[in-house]
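FORM 7B: Structural annotation worksheet

SECTION A. Query
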Amino acid sequence: MKCVYQAADVLEAHVIQGLLEQHRISSFIEGEYLMGAAGGLPASHDIRILVNDDDWEQGVSLMQEYEQTNRPLTQQAPVAEGGMPRNGNGLLIAMGLMVLMILIEALRYFL
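SECTION B. Predicted structure
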């Protein structure tokens, strides 16, 4: 087996594993069970995704595509340029107001 990607954490490793499975590439996460030895921190920072030697080239190609399309939040485009919103406070306030309005409306029936 050969390594196609070194993940930042176990969650990212499982996302990568799912991506590989969508392309019919079986994979193994190495280092997944080293968590918890140091209070929830990885004992080793090497959480690697391994694939069979025959699938290595296709896996590397997928990982290069993954790296190009999934940039860190600090490098993503702003909302005005088509990027995803980074701050959901406005949405949370709107949802809170909607819940409050529903509660007030429900209380009108009971009073």
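SECTION C. Observations
The longest helix spans residues 89-110. Residues 12 and 54 are 23 Å apart (CA to CA).

SECTION D. Sign-off
Analyst initials: ____
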